[in-house]
Design brief:
The chain has a domain of about 80 residues. Helix content is about 30%, strand content about 20%. It is built from eleven helices and 14 strands. The strands form three sheets. It has an eight-stranded mixed beta sheet, sandwiched between helices. Strand 11 and strand 12 form a beta hairpin. Helix 4 packs across helix 5 and helix 5 packs across helix 7. It is globular, with a radius of gyration of 22 Å. The N terminus is likely disordered.
Length: about 375
């Protein structure tokens, strides 16, 4: 049901005071229930589970993460499902606001409550000893995996590092948190080892430096060292090269590629840059307006893109051959996230739209053992491109 009424005089949309109060009342009720569930005391058996694929380290199954606002419920992640296999890099790509970062924050359980909540779905993670459903874990137990089994590299290192503590103090803290009874000399030795691992030439000097004394590339290397200090099984890299120049960006990508093999782990790489995805990823997940619209191997997504949105993304990337041509852009805008339509979210922007696109949202269709697309153009019995 739409929460908006049409303003006949101005032609715009608005909410009356009565409607705003009704939304706030309903939101408060739902948020209270979700917060109580998130902070409950329970036995570990309530969130232990089994993996559906023995080769997967992470399985996200029908995940819904919402933000409860005064205008209504923003369905930032609306039924997302994909897997991250062991020792592989999975790239999550899509334009700004498609739900990439909210998906990663859901895995880390870093959504800012009470407005941001995991409403439903499963996040199955194969830890070193047990298999957990992260979506069902109470916040008091999330320390069992956050930081130690799953680590995150954030987009902007200058806002992630504390400016009043030295690099060494911040790196040592990771060891103190994850290894009870660790001595200061042990923590320092581990920190120096991690700085060496990420290619910092003078680790002792950087260990005693403050964040503002380092370049952007050095700070990002420190963030990677901090993520690796606890020997995680999964690294989530949320646009780790956005704030870096091209030369440093290439170095960081090479570093991540080498580290994946050294730590024998997996990487969930979030970016809007298709060039980085083509270079780094084994599998690609394309998101649009909070949903996965296509997923497959990197070869399938780049050599045989099926969804009109994926095709548009690739056409909008500049190439050497197109230097004299006008850069392609996908027409139209993303639908209002508070009041999403029931039909395909890309319908109003799609050049291949057909009559059936006005109906129910398309199911995820399998076109090969590893290639899936959510589009009416590829339903059973029709040409799969």
């Amino acid at each position: 049901m739409s929460i908006f009424k049409k303003n006949k005089k101005s032609g715009g949309n608005y909410l009356s005071g009565k409607e705003v109060r009704a939304i706030a009342k309903e939101n408060a009720k739902v948020m209270k229930e979700l917060e109580a569930y998130k902070n409950r005391k329970c036995d570990e058996s309530e969130y232990l589970t089994e993996m559906q694929g023995e080769d997967n380290i992470l399985e996200i199954d029908n995940l819904h993460s919402y933000f409860f606002t005064e205008q209504g419920v923003v369905k930032a992640v609306n039924g997302v499902s994909f897997d991250i296999p062991k020792n592989k890099t999975v790239g999550i790509v899509g334009e700004s606001g498609c739900g990439k970062s909210v998906t990663s924050m859901s895995v880390m359980r870093l959504l800012q409550g009470p407005t941001g909540q995991i409403v439903s779905g499963e996040i199955r993670f194969h830890a070193k000893e047990k298999i957990f459903d992260i979506a069902k874990m109470p916040m008091r137990d999330i320390h069992k995996i956050r930081g130690s089994e799953i680590a995150m590299i954030f987009q902007e290192p200058m806002t992630s590092l504390n400016p009043i503590f030295t690099i060494g103090e911040q790196l040592d803290e990771v060891t103190f948190i994850n290894k009870k009874g660790a001595r200061k000399d042990e923590a320092k030795a581990k920190s120096i080892e991690m700085l060496n691992l990420v290619g910092i030439a003078m680790p002792e000097r950087v260990y005693g430096a403050y964040p503002h004394e380092l370049s952007g590339g050095m700070r990002q290397r420190v963030m990677i060292a901090m993520a690796l200090a606890s020997d995680p099984r999964l690294i989530i890299a949320d646009e780790p090269t956005t704030a870096l120049d091209v030369t440093i960006q290439a170095q960081i990508l090479d570093l991540l590629r080498d580290l994946k093999d050294k730590i024998d782990g997996s990487i969930m790489l979030i970016t809007h840059d298709l060039g980085i995805i083509a270079e780094m990823a084994d599998y690609v997940v394309v998101m649009y307006a909070g949903r996965v619209i296509e997923k497959g191997t990197v070869e399938e997504i780049f050599h045989n893109p099926l969804h009109p949105y994926t095709i548009g993304l690739q056409k909008s990337k500049p190439t050497v051959d197109s230097s004299n041509e006008e850069l392609y852009n996908i027409p139209g805008n993303v639908p209002n996230p508070v009041n999403m339509p029931n039909h395909c979210y890309f319908k109003e922007r799609c050049a291949m739209c057909k009559e059936k696109c006005a109906g129910d949202y398309p199911d995820m269709i399998q076109v090969s053992p590893t290639h899936f697309v959510s589009c009416h153009l590829y339903e059973e019995g029709q040409n799969n491109g």
